[in-house]
Amino acid sequence: NSYEPCDFVLFGTLGDLSRRKLLPSLYQLEKANLMHPDTTIVGVARQDMSLEDYIEEVHTNLIKFGEKELCEATWEKMKARLHYACVDMKDVDSYCVLDDHVDASRTMVCYLATPPAIYGDICRGLHSCKIIDSSVRVVLEKPIGHDLESSKVINEQVAEYFDEKQIYRIDHYLGKETVLNLVSLRFANSIFATNWDHNCIDHVQISVAESVGIEGRWGYFDDAGQMRDMVQNHLLQILSLVAMEPPTTLDADSIRDEKLKVLKALRPINASNVNQTTVRGQYTAGFVKGQEVPGYLEEEGANTQSKTESFVAIKAEIDNWRWAGVPFYLRTGKRMPNKVSEVVIYFKRQPHNLFGDSFKDLPPNKLVIRLQPDEGVEITVMNKVPGLTNSGSMDLQKSKLNLSFSEAFADERIPDAYEKLLLEVMLGNQALFVRRDEIEQAWTWVDSILAAWRSTSEPPEPYQAGTWGPVDSIGLLARENRSWYESK
Ligand code: BG6
Protein backbone atom coordinates (compact mmCIF):
# COMPACT_ATOMS: atom_id res chain seq x y z
CA ASN A 1 0.00 0.00 0.00
CA SER A 2 1.23 3.46 -0.73
CA TYR A 3 -0.01 6.70 0.67
CA GLU A 4 0.93 8.83 -2.28
CA PRO A 5 -0.79 11.67 -4.04
CA CYS A 6 -2.88 10.82 -7.08
CA ASP A 7 -5.10 12.44 -9.68
CA PHE A 8 -8.53 10.99 -9.05
CA VAL A 9 -10.38 11.33 -12.36
CA LEU A 10 -14.10 10.77 -12.02
CA PHE A 11 -15.78 9.97 -15.34
CA GLY A 12 -19.52 10.55 -15.07
CA THR A 13 -19.10 13.08 -12.29
CA LEU A 14 -22.56 14.57 -12.90
CA GLY A 15 -24.32 11.18 -12.75
CA ASP A 16 -26.34 9.65 -9.98
CA LEU A 17 -23.67 7.44 -8.43
CA SER A 18 -21.14 10.27 -8.25
CA ARG A 19 -23.62 12.66 -6.72
CA ARG A 20 -25.13 10.26 -4.22
CA LYS A 21 -22.16 8.17 -3.21
CA LEU A 22 -18.75 8.98 -4.66
CA LEU A 23 -18.42 12.71 -4.00
CA PRO A 24 -19.93 12.43 -0.48
CA SER A 25 -17.47 9.60 0.22
CA LEU A 26 -14.52 11.70 -0.96
CA TYR A 27 -15.78 14.45 1.32
CA GLN A 28 -15.81 12.02 4.29
CA LEU A 29 -12.27 10.90 3.49
CA GLU A 30 -11.28 14.55 3.44
CA LYS A 31 -12.93 15.10 6.78
CA ALA A 32 -11.10 12.12 8.25
CA ASN A 33 -7.79 13.50 6.87
CA LEU A 34 -7.35 10.42 4.73
CA MET A 35 -6.87 12.25 1.44
CA HIS A 36 -3.25 12.91 0.60
CA PRO A 37 -2.73 16.69 0.73
CA ASP A 38 -1.61 16.77 -2.91
CA THR A 39 -4.32 14.58 -4.39
CA THR A 40 -6.58 16.23 -6.94
CA ILE A 41 -10.13 15.35 -7.98
CA VAL A 42 -10.88 15.83 -11.66
CA GLY A 43 -14.58 15.67 -12.51
CA VAL A 44 -15.21 14.59 -16.11
CA ALA A 45 -18.48 14.83 -17.98
CA ARG A 46 -19.79 15.76 -21.39
CA GLN A 47 -21.40 18.98 -20.32
CA ASP A 48 -19.54 22.20 -20.97
CA MET A 49 -19.19 23.71 -17.53
CA SER A 50 -16.92 26.20 -15.80
CA LEU A 51 -14.94 25.13 -12.75
CA GLU A 52 -17.01 27.59 -10.65
CA ASP A 53 -20.24 25.94 -11.77
CA TYR A 54 -18.82 22.48 -11.10
CA ILE A 55 -17.77 23.50 -7.60
CA GLU A 56 -21.27 24.85 -7.01
CA GLU A 57 -22.77 21.61 -8.32
CA VAL A 58 -20.59 19.47 -6.02
CA HIS A 59 -21.43 21.71 -3.05
CA THR A 60 -25.18 21.43 -3.69
CA ASN A 61 -25.01 17.66 -4.02
CA LEU A 62 -22.90 17.19 -0.92
CA ILE A 63 -25.60 18.96 1.07
CA LYS A 64 -28.38 17.07 -0.68
CA PHE A 65 -26.90 13.58 -0.45
CA GLY A 66 -24.21 13.83 2.21
CA GLU A 67 -24.11 15.91 5.34
CA LYS A 68 -26.81 18.50 5.75
CA GLU A 69 -24.29 20.90 7.25
CA LEU A 70 -20.90 20.77 5.67
CA CYS A 71 -17.82 21.33 7.78
CA GLU A 72 -16.47 24.55 6.25
CA ALA A 73 -12.80 23.69 6.77
CA THR A 74 -13.29 20.30 5.11
CA TRP A 75 -15.17 21.78 2.19
CA GLU A 76 -12.49 24.44 1.65
CA LYS A 77 -9.85 21.72 1.43
CA MET A 78 -11.94 19.58 -0.89
CA LYS A 79 -12.87 22.53 -3.08
CA ALA A 80 -9.21 23.35 -3.62
CA ARG A 81 -8.68 19.88 -5.12
CA LEU A 82 -11.47 20.11 -7.70
CA HIS A 83 -10.89 20.37 -11.42
CA TYR A 84 -13.41 19.94 -14.19
CA ALA A 85 -12.82 18.59 -17.70
CA CYS A 86 -15.40 18.48 -20.44
CA VAL A 87 -14.91 15.28 -22.45
CA ASP A 88 -17.13 13.69 -25.05
CA MET A 89 -16.38 10.14 -24.03
CA LYS A 90 -17.05 8.75 -27.50
CA ASP A 91 -14.68 11.17 -29.19
CA VAL A 92 -11.05 10.07 -28.81
CA ASP A 93 -9.73 13.54 -29.63
CA SER A 94 -11.55 15.17 -26.77
CA TYR A 95 -9.51 13.33 -24.08
CA CYS A 96 -6.43 15.48 -24.70
CA VAL A 97 -7.92 18.14 -22.47
CA LEU A 98 -7.07 15.87 -19.51
CA ASP A 99 -3.40 16.75 -20.04
CA ASP A 100 -4.13 20.12 -18.47
CA HIS A 101 -5.47 18.50 -15.31
CA VAL A 102 -3.31 15.50 -14.56
CA ASP A 103 0.35 15.23 -13.78
CA ALA A 104 2.04 12.41 -15.65
CA SER A 105 4.54 11.91 -12.83
CA ARG A 106 1.80 10.86 -10.41
CA THR A 107 -0.61 7.96 -10.15
CA MET A 108 -3.85 8.49 -11.99
CA VAL A 109 -7.02 6.77 -10.82
CA CYS A 110 -9.77 6.68 -13.46
CA TYR A 111 -13.13 5.92 -11.89
CA LEU A 112 -15.65 4.95 -14.55
CA ALA A 113 -19.01 5.87 -13.03
CA THR A 114 -20.61 5.63 -16.47
CA PRO A 115 -22.67 3.00 -18.25
CA PRO A 116 -20.46 -0.05 -18.91
CA ALA A 117 -21.28 0.26 -22.62
CA ILE A 118 -18.76 3.11 -22.85
CA TYR A 119 -15.94 1.61 -20.74
CA GLY A 120 -14.23 0.55 -23.95
CA ASP A 121 -14.57 4.06 -25.44
CA ILE A 122 -13.06 5.63 -22.34
CA CYS A 123 -10.10 3.25 -22.29
CA ARG A 124 -9.51 3.89 -25.99
CA GLY A 125 -9.75 7.65 -25.44
CA LEU A 126 -7.23 7.55 -22.58
CA HIS A 127 -4.92 5.45 -24.70
CA SER A 128 -5.15 7.71 -27.73
CA CYS A 129 -4.12 10.77 -25.75
CA LYS A 130 -1.20 8.72 -24.37
CA ILE A 131 -2.29 9.10 -20.78
CA ILE A 132 -2.14 5.41 -19.90
CA ASP A 133 0.95 3.91 -18.36
CA SER A 134 1.40 1.05 -15.92
CA SER A 135 0.74 3.28 -12.90
CA VAL A 136 -2.80 4.20 -13.99
CA ARG A 137 -5.63 2.43 -12.13
CA VAL A 138 -9.09 2.00 -13.57
CA VAL A 139 -12.16 1.45 -11.42
CA LEU A 140 -15.19 -0.28 -12.97
CA GLU A 141 -18.71 -0.14 -11.60
CA LYS A 142 -21.22 -2.93 -11.96
CA PRO A 143 -22.96 -4.29 -13.93
CA ILE A 144 -20.04 -5.85 -15.75
CA GLY A 145 -22.10 -7.57 -18.38
CA HIS A 146 -25.48 -9.16 -18.54
CA ASP A 147 -24.16 -12.69 -18.80
CA LEU A 148 -20.83 -14.46 -19.19
CA GLU A 149 -20.45 -13.57 -22.83
CA SER A 150 -21.15 -9.85 -22.47
CA SER A 151 -18.99 -9.61 -19.35
CA LYS A 152 -16.12 -11.11 -21.33
CA VAL A 153 -16.60 -8.47 -24.02
CA ILE A 154 -16.37 -5.65 -21.46
CA ASN A 155 -13.42 -7.25 -19.67
CA GLU A 156 -11.65 -7.73 -23.01
CA GLN A 157 -12.18 -4.11 -24.02
CA VAL A 158 -10.61 -2.92 -20.79
CA ALA A 159 -7.87 -5.56 -20.87
CA GLU A 160 -6.75 -4.23 -24.24
CA TYR A 161 -5.33 -1.20 -22.43
CA PHE A 162 -4.99 -2.23 -18.77
CA ASP A 163 -3.33 -5.12 -17.03
CA GLU A 164 -5.46 -7.02 -14.47
CA LYS A 165 -3.27 -5.52 -11.71
CA GLN A 166 -4.53 -2.08 -12.72
CA ILE A 167 -8.25 -2.97 -12.76
CA TYR A 168 -10.47 -2.46 -9.71
CA ARG A 169 -13.97 -3.93 -10.15
CA ILE A 170 -16.39 -2.64 -7.56
CA ASP A 171 -18.83 -4.72 -5.59
CA HIS A 172 -19.83 -2.22 -2.96
CA TYR A 173 -20.80 -5.00 -0.51
CA LEU A 174 -17.07 -5.74 -0.16
CA GLY A 175 -16.63 -2.26 1.32
CA LYS A 176 -19.24 -2.73 4.02
CA GLU A 177 -17.71 -2.93 7.49
CA THR A 178 -19.73 -5.97 8.46
CA VAL A 179 -18.87 -7.85 5.29
CA LEU A 180 -15.19 -7.13 5.96
CA ASN A 181 -15.75 -8.32 9.49
CA LEU A 182 -16.61 -11.79 8.16
CA VAL A 183 -12.90 -12.26 7.59
CA SER A 184 -11.90 -11.18 11.10
CA LEU A 185 -14.73 -13.10 12.72
CA ARG A 186 -13.67 -16.30 11.01
CA PHE A 187 -9.91 -16.01 11.15
CA ALA A 188 -9.25 -14.02 14.32
CA ASN A 189 -11.40 -16.24 16.56
CA SER A 190 -10.49 -19.86 17.08
CA ILE A 191 -13.96 -20.57 18.46
CA PHE A 192 -15.31 -20.05 14.94
CA ALA A 193 -12.29 -21.07 12.90
CA THR A 194 -12.33 -24.56 14.42
CA ASN A 195 -16.08 -25.08 14.05
CA TRP A 196 -16.51 -23.92 10.51
CA ASP A 197 -17.34 -26.99 8.46
CA HIS A 198 -19.75 -29.83 7.81
CA ASN A 199 -18.91 -31.49 11.13
CA CYS A 200 -20.34 -28.60 13.11
CA ILE A 201 -22.57 -26.63 10.77
CA ASP A 202 -25.98 -27.82 9.63
CA HIS A 203 -26.70 -25.11 7.09
CA VAL A 204 -26.15 -21.45 6.31
CA GLN A 205 -28.66 -18.76 5.36
CA ILE A 206 -27.75 -15.54 3.57
CA SER A 207 -30.59 -13.04 3.26
CA VAL A 208 -30.46 -9.62 1.68
CA ALA A 209 -33.93 -8.16 1.90
CA GLU A 210 -34.78 -4.70 0.62
CA SER A 211 -37.90 -2.68 1.31
CA VAL A 212 -37.41 -0.50 -1.77
CA GLY A 213 -38.86 -1.42 -5.14
CA ILE A 214 -37.08 -0.71 -8.37
CA GLU A 215 -36.85 3.02 -7.67
CA GLY A 216 -37.71 4.31 -11.11
CA ARG A 217 -35.08 2.07 -12.76
CA TRP A 218 -37.51 -0.05 -14.81
CA GLY A 219 -35.35 0.11 -17.93
CA TYR A 220 -32.33 -1.31 -16.15
CA PHE A 221 -34.02 -3.57 -13.67
CA ASP A 222 -36.45 -5.34 -15.94
CA ASP A 223 -33.53 -6.43 -18.10
CA ALA A 224 -31.50 -7.52 -15.12
CA GLY A 225 -33.86 -8.90 -12.46
CA GLN A 226 -32.86 -9.69 -8.91
CA MET A 227 -30.62 -12.55 -9.99
CA ARG A 228 -28.27 -10.36 -12.02
CA ASP A 229 -28.73 -7.27 -9.85
CA MET A 230 -28.03 -8.89 -6.47
CA VAL A 231 -27.19 -12.61 -6.56
CA GLN A 232 -24.50 -12.63 -9.26
CA ASN A 233 -22.48 -10.09 -7.32
CA HIS A 234 -23.38 -9.24 -3.72
CA LEU A 235 -24.78 -12.56 -2.50
CA LEU A 236 -22.11 -14.66 -4.18
CA GLN A 237 -19.39 -12.44 -2.76
CA ILE A 238 -20.81 -12.86 0.75
CA LEU A 239 -21.11 -16.60 0.21
CA SER A 240 -17.49 -16.78 -0.96
CA LEU A 241 -16.21 -14.98 2.12
CA VAL A 242 -18.24 -17.21 4.42
CA ALA A 243 -17.19 -20.43 2.70
CA MET A 244 -13.61 -19.83 1.53
CA GLU A 245 -10.60 -21.66 2.93
CA PRO A 246 -8.21 -19.57 5.03
CA PRO A 247 -6.13 -17.48 2.63
CA THR A 248 -2.38 -17.66 3.25
CA THR A 249 -2.24 -13.88 3.74
CA LEU A 250 -4.63 -10.96 3.36
CA ASP A 251 -3.05 -10.10 0.01
CA ALA A 252 -5.46 -9.41 -2.81
CA ASP A 253 -4.67 -12.56 -4.74
CA SER A 254 -4.56 -14.87 -1.72
CA ILE A 255 -8.12 -13.87 -0.83
CA ARG A 256 -9.36 -13.84 -4.39
CA ASP A 257 -7.85 -17.24 -5.15
CA GLU A 258 -9.81 -18.72 -2.25
CA LYS A 259 -13.07 -16.98 -3.20
CA LEU A 260 -12.69 -18.25 -6.74
CA LYS A 261 -12.34 -21.84 -5.54
CA VAL A 262 -15.69 -21.55 -3.76
CA LEU A 263 -17.39 -20.22 -6.87
CA LYS A 264 -15.91 -23.05 -8.88
CA ALA A 265 -17.20 -25.59 -6.36
CA LEU A 266 -20.80 -24.38 -6.55
CA ARG A 267 -22.94 -27.25 -7.76
CA PRO A 268 -24.44 -26.30 -11.13
CA ILE A 269 -28.16 -25.64 -11.20
CA ASN A 270 -29.80 -26.39 -14.52
CA ALA A 271 -33.08 -27.58 -15.98
CA SER A 272 -32.71 -30.92 -14.18
CA ASN A 273 -32.69 -29.48 -10.66
CA VAL A 274 -33.86 -25.86 -10.95
CA ASN A 275 -37.35 -26.55 -9.62
CA GLN A 276 -36.06 -28.22 -6.47
CA THR A 277 -33.40 -25.62 -5.76
CA THR A 278 -34.72 -22.20 -6.75
CA VAL A 279 -37.78 -19.99 -6.32
CA ARG A 280 -38.48 -16.81 -8.27
CA GLY A 281 -40.99 -14.23 -7.22
CA GLN A 282 -42.47 -10.95 -8.43
CA TYR A 283 -44.15 -8.52 -6.06
CA THR A 284 -47.77 -7.44 -6.34
CA ALA A 285 -49.30 -4.33 -4.79
CA GLY A 286 -49.24 -4.16 -1.03
CA PHE A 287 -48.06 -2.17 1.97
CA VAL A 288 -44.46 -1.67 2.97
CA LYS A 289 -43.86 0.05 6.31
CA GLY A 290 -47.49 1.19 6.29
CA GLN A 291 -47.25 2.75 2.81
CA GLU A 292 -49.28 1.49 -0.10
CA VAL A 293 -47.03 0.56 -3.01
CA PRO A 294 -47.78 -0.61 -6.57
CA GLY A 295 -47.02 -4.09 -7.85
CA TYR A 296 -44.01 -4.71 -10.08
CA LEU A 297 -46.16 -4.77 -13.21
CA GLU A 298 -47.74 -1.44 -12.26
CA GLU A 299 -44.45 0.41 -11.76
CA GLU A 300 -43.84 3.45 -13.94
CA GLY A 301 -42.87 2.40 -17.45
CA ALA A 302 -43.70 -1.24 -16.78
CA ASN A 303 -44.21 -3.89 -19.40
CA THR A 304 -47.26 -5.57 -17.97
CA GLN A 305 -46.22 -8.95 -19.40
CA SER A 306 -42.83 -8.94 -17.73
CA LYS A 307 -41.61 -12.18 -16.19
CA THR A 308 -38.64 -10.57 -14.48
CA GLU A 309 -38.03 -11.73 -10.94
CA SER A 310 -37.83 -9.28 -8.04
CA PHE A 311 -37.21 -12.09 -5.55
CA VAL A 312 -34.91 -15.09 -5.63
CA ALA A 313 -34.35 -17.93 -3.18
CA ILE A 314 -31.77 -20.61 -3.92
CA LYS A 315 -30.52 -23.71 -2.22
CA ALA A 316 -26.85 -23.66 -3.17
CA GLU A 317 -24.45 -26.50 -2.49
CA ILE A 318 -20.69 -26.28 -2.41
CA ASP A 319 -19.12 -29.49 -3.61
CA ASN A 320 -15.94 -29.59 -1.59
CA TRP A 321 -14.61 -31.36 1.49
CA ARG A 322 -15.45 -28.63 4.01
CA TRP A 323 -19.04 -28.09 2.96
CA ALA A 324 -20.23 -31.52 1.88
CA GLY A 325 -23.92 -31.82 2.72
CA VAL A 326 -24.25 -28.26 4.07
CA PRO A 327 -26.78 -26.25 2.08
CA PHE A 328 -26.33 -22.50 1.70
CA TYR A 329 -29.79 -20.95 1.34
CA LEU A 330 -29.71 -17.58 -0.39
CA ARG A 331 -32.64 -15.20 -0.39
CA THR A 332 -32.97 -11.67 -1.74
CA GLY A 333 -35.92 -9.58 -2.80
CA LYS A 334 -37.33 -6.14 -3.32
CA ARG A 335 -40.38 -4.77 -1.50
CA MET A 336 -39.92 -6.97 1.53
CA PRO A 337 -41.04 -5.74 4.96
CA ASN A 338 -37.64 -4.31 5.99
CA LYS A 339 -34.19 -3.64 4.72
CA VAL A 340 -32.14 -6.30 6.43
CA SER A 341 -29.07 -8.28 5.42
CA GLU A 342 -27.77 -11.10 7.51
CA VAL A 343 -25.80 -14.31 7.48
CA VAL A 344 -27.08 -16.99 9.83
CA ILE A 345 -24.98 -20.04 10.62
CA TYR A 346 -27.04 -22.90 12.03
CA PHE A 347 -24.88 -25.28 14.04
CA LYS A 348 -25.73 -28.96 14.35
CA ARG A 349 -27.96 -30.15 17.14
CA GLN A 350 -26.49 -31.90 20.18
CA PRO A 351 -26.13 -35.65 19.59
CA HIS A 352 -27.84 -36.60 22.84
CA ASN A 353 -30.39 -34.87 25.05
CA LEU A 354 -29.76 -34.82 28.80
CA PHE A 355 -32.60 -32.53 29.65
CA GLY A 356 -35.64 -34.73 29.50
CA ASP A 357 -38.93 -34.59 27.71
CA SER A 358 -39.63 -30.91 28.12
CA PHE A 359 -36.57 -30.17 25.96
CA LYS A 360 -37.03 -32.89 23.40
CA ASP A 361 -36.16 -30.53 20.67
CA LEU A 362 -33.12 -28.64 21.88
CA PRO A 363 -32.79 -25.84 19.34
CA PRO A 364 -29.48 -25.57 17.52
CA ASN A 365 -27.04 -22.77 18.28
CA LYS A 366 -27.14 -20.00 15.75
CA LEU A 367 -24.57 -17.42 14.86
CA VAL A 368 -26.34 -14.41 13.41
CA ILE A 369 -24.14 -11.91 11.62
CA ARG A 370 -26.18 -8.76 11.07
CA LEU A 371 -24.70 -7.04 8.04
CA GLN A 372 -27.15 -4.13 8.03
CA PRO A 373 -28.86 -2.31 9.69
CA ASP A 374 -28.20 -2.66 13.45
CA GLU A 375 -24.81 -4.13 12.58
CA GLY A 376 -23.65 -6.79 15.00
CA VAL A 377 -23.01 -10.40 15.82
CA GLU A 378 -25.26 -12.56 17.93
CA ILE A 379 -25.08 -16.14 19.20
CA THR A 380 -28.07 -17.99 20.54
CA VAL A 381 -27.30 -20.35 23.41
CA MET A 382 -29.33 -22.49 25.77
CA ASN A 383 -28.99 -21.34 29.33
CA LYS A 384 -30.23 -22.62 32.68
CA VAL A 385 -32.94 -20.43 34.11
CA PRO A 386 -31.55 -19.42 37.50
CA GLY A 387 -33.51 -20.60 40.54
CA LEU A 388 -34.45 -23.64 42.63
CA THR A 389 -37.00 -26.31 41.70
CA ASN A 390 -38.33 -29.28 43.64
CA SER A 391 -38.55 -31.52 40.59
CA GLY A 392 -34.82 -32.04 40.25
CA SER A 393 -35.00 -31.01 36.61
CA MET A 394 -33.32 -28.07 34.98
CA ASP A 395 -35.25 -25.32 33.33
CA LEU A 396 -33.61 -24.10 30.13
CA GLN A 397 -34.12 -20.98 28.12
CA LYS A 398 -32.85 -19.78 24.78
CA SER A 399 -30.70 -16.66 25.34
CA LYS A 400 -28.55 -14.38 23.24
CA LEU A 401 -24.98 -13.23 23.42
CA ASN A 402 -25.21 -10.04 21.51
CA LEU A 403 -22.51 -7.74 20.18
CA SER A 404 -24.13 -4.63 18.83
CA PHE A 405 -21.75 -2.38 16.94
CA SER A 406 -23.66 0.74 17.91
CA GLU A 407 -23.12 -0.07 21.60
CA ALA A 408 -19.68 -1.65 21.48
CA PHE A 409 -18.24 0.98 19.16
CA ALA A 410 -20.44 3.90 20.19
CA ASP A 411 -17.72 6.45 19.39
CA GLU A 412 -16.99 5.06 15.95
CA ARG A 413 -18.87 6.11 12.86
CA ILE A 414 -19.58 3.26 10.45
CA PRO A 415 -18.21 4.49 7.13
CA ASP A 416 -20.11 4.04 3.92
CA ALA A 417 -18.84 1.16 1.77
CA TYR A 418 -17.67 3.56 -0.93
CA GLU A 419 -15.44 5.45 1.51
CA LYS A 420 -13.55 2.26 2.21
CA LEU A 421 -13.34 1.29 -1.45
CA LEU A 422 -12.21 4.70 -2.68
CA LEU A 423 -9.52 4.75 -0.03
CA GLU A 424 -8.32 1.29 -1.03
CA VAL A 425 -8.11 2.29 -4.70
CA MET A 426 -6.06 5.32 -3.79
CA LEU A 427 -3.78 3.10 -1.68
CA GLY A 428 -3.48 0.63 -4.56
CA ASN A 429 -4.87 -2.37 -2.68
CA GLN A 430 -6.95 -4.72 -4.84
CA ALA A 431 -8.08 -7.09 -2.07
CA LEU A 432 -11.61 -5.67 -1.91
CA PHE A 433 -12.12 -5.67 -5.66
CA VAL A 434 -13.37 -8.50 -7.78
CA ARG A 435 -10.99 -10.23 -10.15
CA ARG A 436 -12.01 -11.05 -13.69
CA ASP A 437 -12.05 -14.81 -13.13
CA GLU A 438 -14.36 -14.40 -10.10
CA ILE A 439 -16.85 -12.35 -12.11
CA GLU A 440 -16.79 -14.81 -14.98
CA GLN A 441 -17.19 -17.82 -12.70
CA ALA A 442 -20.14 -16.15 -10.95
CA TRP A 443 -21.73 -15.51 -14.34
CA THR A 444 -21.23 -19.13 -15.36
CA TRP A 445 -23.23 -20.33 -12.35
CA VAL A 446 -25.91 -17.66 -12.68
CA ASP A 447 -26.29 -18.06 -16.45
CA SER A 448 -27.14 -21.70 -16.02
CA ILE A 449 -29.97 -20.88 -13.60
CA LEU A 450 -31.27 -18.11 -15.84
CA ALA A 451 -31.24 -20.47 -18.82
CA ALA A 452 -33.17 -23.07 -16.83
CA TRP A 453 -35.78 -20.48 -15.87
CA ARG A 454 -36.06 -19.36 -19.48
CA SER A 455 -36.68 -22.91 -20.58
CA THR A 456 -39.88 -23.09 -18.55
CA SER A 457 -42.72 -20.86 -19.62
CA GLU A 458 -43.73 -20.39 -15.98
CA PRO A 459 -43.95 -16.82 -14.69
CA PRO A 460 -42.39 -15.97 -11.34
CA GLU A 461 -44.57 -16.67 -8.33
CA PRO A 462 -46.40 -13.57 -7.08
CA TYR A 463 -45.85 -12.30 -3.54
CA GLN A 464 -47.48 -9.34 -1.94
CA ALA A 465 -45.27 -6.31 -1.36
CA GLY A 466 -44.46 -6.13 2.33
CA THR A 467 -44.12 -9.89 2.80
CA TRP A 468 -41.05 -12.15 2.94
CA GLY A 469 -41.54 -13.52 -0.56
CA PRO A 470 -43.51 -16.29 -2.26
CA VAL A 471 -44.89 -19.22 -0.31
CA ASP A 472 -42.64 -21.60 -2.24
CA SER A 473 -39.58 -20.00 -0.68
CA ILE A 474 -40.84 -21.22 2.69
CA GLY A 475 -41.32 -24.66 1.14
CA LEU A 476 -37.71 -24.66 -0.12
CA LEU A 477 -36.57 -25.02 3.49
CA ALA A 478 -39.66 -26.60 5.02
CA ARG A 479 -39.31 -29.76 2.95
CA GLU A 480 -35.93 -30.23 4.64
CA ASN A 481 -37.39 -29.48 8.09
CA ARG A 482 -35.82 -26.06 8.22
CA SER A 483 -37.18 -22.53 8.19
CA TRP A 484 -35.91 -19.07 7.35
CA TYR A 485 -34.45 -17.13 10.22
CA GLU A 486 -36.94 -14.53 11.35
CA SER A 487 -35.32 -11.13 11.80
CA LYS A 488 -36.64 -8.95 14.51
C1 BG6 B 1 -27.20 -2.34 -5.92
C2 BG6 B 1 -28.41 -2.79 -6.69
O1 BG6 B 1 -26.04 -2.96 -6.39
O2 BG6 B 1 -27.36 -2.66 -4.54
C3 BG6 B 1 -29.68 -2.17 -6.11
O3 BG6 B 1 -28.26 -2.42 -8.05
C4 BG6 B 1 -29.76 -2.47 -4.63
O4 BG6 B 1 -30.82 -2.66 -6.79
C5 BG6 B 1 -28.48 -2.05 -3.93
O5 BG6 B 1 -30.88 -1.76 -4.12
C6 BG6 B 1 -28.48 -2.48 -2.48
O6 BG6 B 1 -27.37 -1.94 -1.84
P1 BG6 B 1 -27.40 -1.58 -0.29
O7 BG6 B 1 -26.02 -1.09 0.01
O8 BG6 B 1 -28.44 -0.51 -0.12
O9 BG6 B 1 -27.77 -2.83 0.43
Describe the structure.
This protein has helices at 16-31, 51-65, 72-81, 119-128, 148-159, 177-187, 190-193, 218-243, 252-265, 274-277, 405-408, 417-427, 436-455, 471-478; strands at 6-11, 40-45, 82-86, 107-112, 137-140, 167-169, 201-209, 278-284, 286-288, 291-293, 311-316, 328-333, 340-347, 366-372, 376-384, 396-404, 461-464. Helices cover 34% and strands 21% of the residues. It starts with 5 loop residues before the first strand and ends in a 10-residue tail after the last helix. The radius of gyration is 24 Å and the shape is globular. By secondary structure, the chain is α/β, with parallel strands linked by helices. Strands 16-15-14-13-7-12-11-8-17 form a 9-stranded mixed β-sheet, sandwiched between helices. The protein binds 6-O-phosphono-beta-D-glucopyranose. 6-O-phosphono-beta-D-glucopyranose binds next to loops. The active site is at 234 (proton acceptor).
Note the main attributes of this structure:
488 residues, alpha/beta, 6-stranded parallel beta sheet, 14 helices, binds 6-O-phosphono-beta-D-glucopyranose
Q: Please work out how many helical segments DSSP would assign.
A: 14
The proportion of residues forming helix, as a percent range, comes to 25-40%
Largest sheet: 9 strands, mixed
User: In what range is the share of β-strand residues?
Assistant: 15-25%
Structural class: alpha/beta
Record the strand order, biggest sheet. Answer: 16-15-14-13-7-12-11-8-17
In angstroms, what is the radius of gyration? 24 Å
Bound molecules: 6-O-phosphono-beta-D-glucopyranose
Q: Could you report the average pLDDT, rounded to the nearest whole number? A: 94
Distance between the termini: 40 Å
Low-pLDDT ranges: none
The strand count comes to 17
Which overall shape is indicated by the principal axes computed on the Cα atoms? globular
Oligomer: single chain
